[in-house]
Amino acid sequence: MKKSTIFIFFVAILISSLPAFVSAEKYIINIKGDPRTPDGKIDLMYSAGLVTDKGTIESETKIDNDNGFFEIKNAVLDTDASFNYVAPFVQGSCFLHSYRVVRKNNRFEVSDGYRSDQDILIATNSTTIDLGVLKEDMSNQAMVDFDVPVKFLAEDLSGNWIAENGNYTKFTGMSNSFKSNTKYKLTLTTKDNEKIVKEITTGNYCESTRLIKRGSYFLAESFPNNSFPPIGFFRNIWLSILGFRMIVIIPLVVAILVIITMLFLIVKRKRA
């Protein structure tokens, strides 16, 4: 009876300690934030959620563009799971905010998803994490529209790497990697290993910048809402003429000569 009593007592202790053990390994967390433009206006969102370095996990997401906030509710942070962190994100046309949340040192530590996880932004014991006002400092997009395939490399004027595309293509660039109203150096490398180095200046917040090359002619232009409207057929011809591209100029001259000849023959026939 004595051994039986000890066994029952041990089981009772184990059962009573189980909820505390589970709560120490699994946490239900809530995350919220307020995206804003540089001048403090509401920055419109179209998606938000929670992912891990191993995939997505379930959570309840609310986006409120009228009041300018998002919430990710009832997300399970399992410290025994195979993933190392959870990454809340919120995205709009001009921004993509991403963070890491880990359970470490008996607290939740939050770091910027684009920077080192050693740079702790928030350290809290609360399961409700308020990211506060979120402002995007890399809202702009840049691309090139060339007449030959090129590799794309963007650097700031101090030589720091910004963006890169190692494939040869006529239309290339990187999204949401550039600050507004800032100068950057673009190095475009052709298949013949010719390096074309150009400097561009990005536009205002959430404006795209496109560098066009037609022959020897280069043109940089900016558009609102990070858009890249089509150049258009006739404008392409005009840009090619400005760049003295013989592949366009010769057929155009031939077409003009044919039209002039036809008009001359028509006028001559009428006079006869």
Q: How would you classify the helix and strand content by structural class?
A: alpha+beta
Work out the helicity level. 10-25%
Low-confidence stretches: 1-24
Q: Specify the biggest β-sheet.
A: 6 strands, antiparallel
Overall, the morphology is elongated
Beta-strand content bin: over 45%
Rg over CA atoms? 30 Å
The topology string of helices and strands comes to HEEEEEEEEEEEEEEEEHH
Strand order of the largest sheet: 3-2-6-7-8-9
Please count the beta strands (DSSP E, at least 2 residues each): 16
Can you offer a commentary on this structure?
There is one protein chain. By secondary structure, the chain is of the alpha+beta class. The protein folds into two domains: 2-135, no CATH class; 140-229, Immunoglobulin-like. It is 22% helix and 49% strand. The protein is built from three helices and 16 strands. It has helices at residues 2-25, 233-242, 246-271; strands at 26-36, 47-52, 55-56, 60-64, 69-78, 86-91, 96-104, 107-112, 120-124, 128-135, 140-156, 161-178, 183-190, 195-201, 208-214, 217-223. The protein has a six-stranded antiparallel β-sheet, with no helix packed on it. It is elongated. Mean pLDDT is 84; it is low at 1-24.
